[in-house]
Amino acid sequence: MHGPPAAHALPFRLKLAWAAGSLGTVTQLYLVNLLLLFFLTRFAGLAPALAGAIIFAGRLYDVFADPAMGAISDRTVSRMGRRRPWMLAGALLSGLSCVALFTVPVGLGHSGAVAWAIGAVALYFTGYTMFNIPYLSMPAEMTDDYDERTRIMSYRVAFVSVAGILGLSLAPLLVKTFGGAREAYASMSMVMAIVITAPMLVAVAGTRDAPQTAHRASSEGLAAWIRSAMANAPFLLLVGIKFLHLLALSSVSATLIFFVVDLLGRDQGTVALFGLVSSVATMLALPLWVKAAVRFSKPLALMWAVILQAAITLTWLAATPAEPPAIFVLRSAALGLASAGVILMGQALLPDAIGYDRARTGLNREGIFAALYSLAEKSAFAAGPLVIGLVLSFAGYEADSDERGALHIGMAIVPALAYLASIPLIVAYRRLELRMRKAA
């Protein structure tokens, strides 16, 4: 289906099929941030700082790969449309590289293990890029309706919540079920490869008749497109907001397993409990945040969610091994409730910013904006393990030590500061949105 974006409600089937793709992409991010640093340090013999640097270095090429993928996607002409051929290829590569990521062969030696880890991480994120950039381009093509975009993204956030269960709960549970040793991670990765690939293929198949815009030829090259895109003030503010929020999330996810096992003195099943409770709370809270966005505006709803999230995150400073399980569950549920608003509003503002560019320039370059947005996501998720790895190394942290300060920094202080730092950007976005609406 070609032509301009729809201005009416999209079919439930279409929204559901498109949103399912997030189950794969977000599971990919959770899996790396939750387990890879732990796996590389405990079972592959790498120092925390080196392991964090590998995760970070494996994504540096995204500075070039993401915009290139966005431009290629924008200019692709095929029977499957501009987006879906790349989504299909990305889905397959993501599953295969997931297995490679957690099967560093024994006997490679230190240098060999480092090389294997870097190569597997690069392939893993290449698959992610090939799927996610075209995927994120689609909502701005499917509808021009302000509130319908929020509803579309609420479907996506529901699947993001399920991905939280799978990434934070299923993966650690599988490791525990398979014995918890090095081989358990290899077995876990085979199951998770299916979990990642299957919903991506559902999105490819289910969006075959989605409304889409056609490529409009332009004499501008990629560099000119990016410079022009950077003149989109709402988008720049959104990128800053999203980076800070995902930096907070990646800091927590990279610290969580250390915090639970080494500070709280509980097994990895408690990580699964956190993922389950917080993700269910997120799904249950979504309708409330959708209503808040429609009634008060997306930026205002986002600001309330951020303040709530920062306040609850700081309560990790009071967590101890003697804390009753009920408090842990209650905190997990409260974080899930606030996360629903943070994630949903951040996602729902993206197609609005892309729509602003279309109205301003007359060009259909959704892929470029999706690429720059995804680059901010990846940078934040890469920075989290790097920061936490450096903090743990500089603090001389060891599994059997009594040092708790480093874990509290990663679990409470860094994320809370990142959330609070985004508030001035949200306020600026809100003022800009009001001016744009008055001008319209």
Search tags:
440 residues; mainly alpha; Growth Hormone, Chain: A; globular
3D architecture notes:
This protein is 79% helix and 0% strand. It is mostly helical. The protein has helices at residues 12-42, 48-57, 62-75, 84-101, 109-142, 146-177, 182-206, 222-229, 233-263, 269-296, 298-313, 325-361, 366-394, 405-421, 423-439. α4 runs antiparallel to α7 and α6 runs antiparallel to α10. It has a single domain (12-439), classed as Growth Hormone, Chain: A (Up-down Bundle), CATH 1.20.1250. The radius of gyration is 21 Å and the shape is globular. It is built from 15 helices and no strands. The longest helix has 37 residues, at 325-361. The model has no long low-confidence stretch (mean pLDDT 85).
How confident overall, as mean pLDDT? 85
The secondary structure category is: mainly alpha
Number of structurally distinct domains: 1
CATH architecture: Up-down Bundle
Q: Catalogue the unreliable spans.
A: none
Number of beta-strand segments: 0
CATH top level class name: Mainly Alpha
- Which topology does CATH recognise? Growth Hormone, Chain: A
Say what oligomer this is: single chain
Largest sheet: none
Shape: globular
Q: β content, as a range?
A: under 5%
Helix content: over 70%
CATH homologous superfamily descriptor = MFS general substrate transporter like domains
CA-CA gap between termini: 28 Å
Radius of gyration: 21 Å
Count of helices? Answer: 15
Topology at a glance:
Layout: H1 12-42, H2 48-57, H3 62-75, H4 84-101, H5 109-142, H6 146-177, H7 182-206, H8 222-229, H9 233-263, H10 269-296, H11 298-313, H12 325-361, H13 366-394, H14 405-421, H15 423-439
Helix pairs in contact: 1-2, 1-5, 1-6, 1-7, 1-9, 2-5, 2-13, 3-5, 3-13, 4-5, 4-7, 5-12, 5-13, 6-7, 6-10, 6-12, 9-12, 9-13, 9-14, 9-15, 10-11, 10-12, 11-12, 11-14, 11-15, 13-14
